[in-house]
């Protein structure tokens, strides 16, 4: 009888198989990391947009609430010192004034006293001022605040250009915001009806 030599296959991986496996795992890991990084940046951008939208809605709601709470005054009306004052723009209610890009709204306090609430741009922020809270920034990166009044039959007009004897029945507040990442400034508008 003759003995024949049988060779048994190796039970392990060859060096080339290991190198191919490691290379494929590296490529898959790199692609997964890039996908996670892109997802993370997208989530951060979506969060920033959500925060911006929330701040804008909150600011417009506060301006609308301030305008809705304006004191119903007859012209002329007493100021804080008790002297009679005539409104700067008779086309607007006596308690709402617009001058030098500043919106001022007189409201009654709990004790009946007239208190001013004003909105203006200070250092690229839209700021709300009251006697108790000075310089509270409501919205950042604001480049323009504007106001137009609705005059029936004439449309939207700047308050200073309203002809004598005409009365506004609504206001349009516009806020322009220019963020670093935006290609162009964004403008947000709100219309408030006047009593």
Automatic annotation (TrEMBL):
Localization per Swiss-Prot or TrEMBL: Cell inner membrane
Highest taxon, organism lineage: Bacteria
Lipid bilayer topology: Single-pass membrane protein
Transmembrane residue ranges: 12-33
Record protein name field: Type II secretion system protein J
UniProt keyword annotations, A-Z: Cell inner membrane, Cell membrane, Membrane, Methylation, Transmembrane, Transmembrane helix
InterPro entries: N_methyl_site (IPR012902), Pilin-like (IPR045584), T2SS_protein_J (IPR051621)
GO cellular component, one term: plasma membrane
UniProt source species: Orrella marina
One of the GO BP terms on file: protein secretion by the type II secretion system
